[in-house]
Amino acid sequence: MAFIDSEEIDKIRIQANITxxxxxYNIDVEKKGKDYKCICPFHxxxxxxxxxxxxxxxxxxxxCGVGGNVFSFVEQFEHVSFPEAxxxxxxxxxxxxxxxITTQNVDKYKKEHDIIDLATMFYQNxxxxxxxxxxxxxxxxxxxxxxxxxxxxxxxxxxxxxDLYKLLNxxxxxxxxxxDIGLVSIINDKVYDFFNGRITFPIEDINGxxxxxxxxxxxxxxxxxxxxNTKETPLYIKGNNLFNYYKARGPAKKEKEIIIVxxxxxxxxxxxxxxxxxxALGGTALTKNQIELIKKLNCKVILCLDGDTAGExxxxxxxxxxSKANIIVQVVRLSDxxxxxxxxxxxxxxxxxxxxxxxxxxxxxxxxxxxxxINIDNSEELxxxxxxxxxxxxNIKDPILKxxxxxxxxxxxxxxxxxxKSKLEGLKQEEKVAKEVFNPVKKDDKKLNxxxxxxxxxxxxxxxxxxxxKKYQKEIGFFExxxxxxxxxxIVYFFQNHGKINIADFISYISANKELYSTVMEIIDTHxxxxxxxxxxNYIKVYIQKYQELKIKRLKIKMSKELDINKKKEILEEIAxxxxxxx
Length: 583
Fold this sequence. Notes:
Blueprint: E1 2-3, H1 6-15, H2 18-23, E2 29-32, E3 35-38, E4 50-53, E5 58-61, E6 67-68, H3 70-78, H4 82-93, E7 102-103, H5 110-127, H6 133-141, H7 146-151, E8 155-157, H8 163-170, H9 175-180, E9 184-187, E10 190-193, E11 198-204, E12 210-216, E13 227-229, H10 245-255, E14 257-261, H11 264-272, E15 278-280, H12 288-295, E16 300-303, H13 309-324, E17 329-331, H14 340-347, H15 349-356, E18 360-361, H16 362-371, H17 379-394, H18 399-413, H19 417-438, H20 450-464, H21 466-475, H22 482-498, H23 503-510, H24 514-525, H25 533-561, H26 565-580
Parallel strand pairs: 14-15, 14-16, 16-17
Antiparallel strand pairs: 1-7, 2-3, 3-4, 4-5, 5-6, 8-11, 9-10, 11-12, 12-13, 17-18
């Protein structure tokens, strides 16, 4: 966790133009009047619905409601914490963070990471000794040169059964810990290296730490597994990682697409050939956590899996999973060679690039694939097939792609477009009913009442202009509800200490308090109006009226429980004073 001085945060925020930072993510920004407009990257947007105010240094989407300052944008776009967002913005504008910043980056698994880093270097060194000559020759035959070896930290486990263990044991590391992180096996109290006689390919986690290895035989050995991978450990859970994700996430965000291949060698080949936005599955089906990693990239997916039947089936499975997660999916199927590694070696990177530049939409791939499994002359099979397609079309978020797909089906099978649209509408109604039945509105989800709304609007105005702070202090001065009271107090405190108020700086100031920050962002996300003093006065009146009604209600309850006649009269007088506006 990085703790950054508030004055330094203010300096970075002032120097960082929000329009420039948003544009740096390859988002086209266009000036409209005094503000700017762009496609919102936080929902499936097809017309510019995000507004950027340079004068106030905030952004706001009027469709999905997301908004905030420059740090809020980076937080949500990069899926990082507030301090990390500040660091990213500082780097983008060339701001050198001062020495007063302390970083408390506590690595829970520091010892484990140190051990695996040592093992990685040990394996790398082995490859460059006389014992690594045959392995280096094998890699050269696979068109893996020294640059690729260095980039991916490729190494070699020797034939000795405990070479790595001896090294680590001499460093004082506990054998049980080494076993727990997958480097050794303990059998009958004897310790053996988990990998021996294999080329090692390090696997990094999403933060760039080597956490596991994939290893391969290289001398044509028979009756042994071609590949052996690290077992799952506290550091390495296969379903939480994608091979090459750490290296690929930056290029993927820049290119607005990520290429998913099947094997690690495919990813290494594609990446080392100059296409860096590539990750490898390392399995057949994406897990929920892997899909979440992909969603964080805010880009489309190109599935380029193996060219065999298994690769085709895996494309169908993973395409469905990604589509259901509202990710745009396209497909590239390579001919003649079984995978991208062989394809690039034999046909060259330009031929591969040409294929990648001409993907087909996943829905088209799926329609064609499923068509191969039916007898189109059989009316029942054809009807069942088209009904399945309609379900897939219903999941398409892009209205243009949806319309194009329906027209294709209509023309190919001579079915009226109206019939298809009617079927589609029926599915939507079924979904709506299902949501109402299985996802009833919770009590906590109901809309805010007028009292809460007026308070939030008052706070919104206060965050934007000091005159509303002064009016609040004069006419209200205190909110009963703790969170609102705390936010109002923080606004007043901020103004008193800075002598001014602006919403962009206040967002940064409040970010350390997660509860208040969350409510402040909700207030910003649900308010769009220009500041207007008359409107503010109306909100004050609504609040005071609602507060008076609430107080009278409480006093009446109190009076009904009071037995002393004189105290009842006092309460009645207090109610009368409230109604007359005295209290």
